[in-house]
Amino acid sequence: MNRKIKYLLLILLITLIPLSLGFTTTSNKLTSPQKVYRVYLKGKYIGLIESKSELEKYINKKEEEVKKKYNVDKVYTPKDLEIKQEYTYNNNIYTVEEIYEKIKDISPLTINGYRVRIGGVTKTQADSEKVKTDAQTIYVIDKDVFTNSAVNTAKAFITSDLYDAYANKTQAEIKETGSLIENIYIKNKISISKQRIPIDKKIYLDEEELSKYLLFGTTEEQSNYVVQPGDTIEKVAFNNQMSTEELMIANNDITDVKTLLYPGQNLKVGVVQPQVDVVEEDYIIKDEDKQYTTETQEDPNQYTDYQEVRQAGANGKNRVTQQIQKVNGVTVNTVTIETKVLKEPIKEIIVKGTKRRASAAYGSPVAISGNWGWPATCGSPSSISSGYGYRWGSLHDGNDIAGCGYGSAIFAANSGTVKESGYQSINGQYIVIDHHNGIYTYYGHLSQRYVSENETVSKGQVIGAMGNTGVAYGVHLHFGAYSGYPIKYGSGGNSFNSMALYS
Question: pTM, whole model, 2 decimals?
Answer without folding.
Answer: 0.72
